[in-house]
Amino acid sequence: MHSTAARHGPAALAVVPAPADAALARLDRLVTVVIVAYRSDRVLPGALSSIPAALPIIVVDNAGRDRSGHLAAAAGATVLENTRNFGFGTACNQGAALADTPFILFLNPDARLSPGVLERLVAVLLEQPDLAATGPLLSAAGRIGLPRRSGQLDIGEALTFDHVPSDACDVGFLSGAALLVRTAAFRSVGGFDERIFLYLEDDDLCMRLRGEGWRLRLMPGAVVAHEKVPDKALPARTLREHNRHTMRSMRYVAGKHGIAVDFKAKRRQALKRLLLALLLMDRRRVHANLGRLQGLGCWPFSWRALPAHEQPCLNTQQGQSTLRKAALAPVAGDETIEDRQP
What we know:
Blueprint: H1 4-8, E1 13-14, H2 20-24, E2 31-37, H3 44-50, E3 57-61, H4 68-74, E4 78-81, H5 88-96, E5 103-107, E6 111-112, H6 117-127, E7 131-140, E8 143-145, E9 169-170, E10 178-182, H7 183-188, H8 201-211, E11 215-226, H9 236-257, H10 263-280, H11 283-295, H12 320-327, E12 335-336
Parallel strand pairs: 2-3, 2-5, 3-4, 7-11
Antiparallel strand pairs: 1-12, 5-10, 6-11, 7-8, 7-10, 9-11
Helix pairs in contact: 9-11, 10-11
C-alpha cells in the first residue's frame, strides 16, 4: 500500500524546514546512519570513528562471519545480525526500517566522513524540501569524482575523476557509498529494490525518486573518502563475483526501466575477452569474463541455479515488508498530507 507521497512525490509532503543553524545544533535528532557490513572489520572502524558523536548508528552485519558486529557494538551502534547474506539493498532496508529521524545517511563501511560534511548535506535538505537526497563527491587515491559501475545506463552523467562540477547542481545519480536521503521520500518509493542483490541499486533508487518528482542534489564542496579496494587487488574469484553481479544487475535494471542496452554485443565482447585470456593464460581475466558471461545469462556459463545466498533477492520479505510497516509510522520533521491539487 503506497502513501500519498508515493503517488505525488514531494507535492504530497508538507515539510516545514527548521532554520538550518538551529536544527544542525541537534544533528542526532535529524540523521540516522545506516552501514551494511560484509567482511568489513578491517575498514569499519574508520567509518564509525568519522561519524559525528551522538548520532544513532545502525550496522547491519550481512553474515560476514568476522568481527564487524563486535566492533560496531563496541562503538555504540545498534547491530542487526543476519543469518545469511541477504544482499546490500535488503540489508539497507532492514537498517532504514529502524530509523525514526527525518534523514538517513547510507554510508559504506570503507567510506569516511570529513568534519563538517554531514552538516553541509543536512542543511541542503532542510532548506530545499523538494530534494529527496543529496550526496558528496568521492575521493580515492587522491582523485575526486563520482564514478559509476552503470555508465552504460543513461540516467545521468557519470562524474568521473576527470570531470567534476565546481558548484552544487541537480543530477540524475548519487552514489550509495555516501547518500543522505529524506526518510519519507525513501519510504514512499519502497526503499531499495531487493531483487537487486548487489550493484546498481543506487541507480534504480535514483530513477524511481526522480520519477516521483523528487530532485537529487550533488554537493561538490563536500567530499567523502572512499577507499574502495581496486579491482586489480581483488582475488580472482572475488573479481568474477563482482563482474557477475554487475552484469546481472544491469540486465535487471535496464529491463525494469526500459533502458536500451545491447546485451548481445556485451556477450560477444565478454566471450572474445575470455578466449583471449585463456590463450594468454591470464587467470584474473578468465575469472572476470566468466563472471560477465554468467551475469549476462550466457549459456553454458550460467547453467547453475542461483547460489543459496542470493535467493533473498527474489523476494522482499526480509527488508521491504519491515520498511512498509515503518512507512506507516510518522517521521519527525515530515508530515504527510492529502494532495489538495484539483
